[in-house]
Design goal:
The chain is 9% helix and 44% strand. It is mainly beta and 163 residues long.
Length: 163
C-alpha cells in the first residue's frame, strides 16, 4: 500500500483517461463469491477506484472503475491461469479489459475516480481486502497511450511471461 502524495498527484483521476497494466500470475483457481484485486488505486470505496484483478466465477480477468455513485465492472472471457498480461483502459467513453493483448470486454461509463492510495495484491481501500494469491512482475499506471504504444508494451510484457 502506498499513500505518498507525490506519487498520487500524478495519477489519472476524476474522468481523466489512463491505463493499468500488469504481468501477473493467479494461483487461486477456485471459483467463489469473492473478487480478487491485483492492482489499483482508490480513495474510500470501489465507487472511486480503478483496479484490475479477477472475477469470482468463473476465474477470468476483471477491471473496475468507479463512477462516483457506484462502479462499472468488466469481466473477461479468458481463464486467468498461468502468467498473463492484463490491461485496463479508462476514459470518458468507459473501460476496456485486455488479456494477453486481446480485448476481452468493454462497458460505457464515465470514471469518477480518486487516488488516496495505491495497492498491490489487495483492494486499495483504507482497510485492504480481497487479497491476490500469486505473483506479479510488472505494475504500470499510464496516461492514455498513443496508437502504436500498447502493442509494443504488450509485446514486451508477453515476452517475459515465461522466463
Amino acid at each position: 500500500m502506498c499513500t505518498d502524495a507525490a506519487l498520487l498527484t500524478g495519477l489519472p483521476a476524476g474522468d481523466a483517461g489512463g491505463e493499468l497494466w500488469s504481468l501477473a500470475q493467479n494461483d487461486n483457481l477456485v471459483a467463489g463469491a469473492t473478487f480478487f484485486d491485483l492492482f489499483g488505486y482508490a480513495n474510500a470505496s470501489q465507487s472511486d477506484a480503478r483496479t484490475i484483478g479477477r472475477i469470482a466465477t468463473p476465474v477470468y480477468g476483471r477491471t473496475v472503475f468507479g463512477t462516483g455513485g457506484g462502479n462499472v465492472s468488466v469481466g473477461g472471457t479468458t481463464l486467468f491461469s498461468g502468467r498473463r498480461v492484463i490491461r485496463g483502459t479508462y476514459s470518458s467513453a468507459g473501460t476496456v479489459l485486455f488479456m494477453d493483448g486481446a480485448q476481452e470486454g468493454s462497458l460505457p461509463g464515465t470514471p469518477a475516480t480518486a487516488a488516496a492510495r495505491v495497492a498491490l495484491f489487495a483492494r486499495a481501500l483504507a482497510t485492504p481486502s480481497n487479497y491476490w494469491t500469486g505473483i506479479g512482475a510488472a505494475f504500470l499506471i499510464t496516461k492514455p497511450l498513443s496508437a502504436t504504444k500498447p502493442a509494443v508494451l504488450a509485446s514486451y510484457l508477453m515476452s517475459r511471461r515465461n522466463p
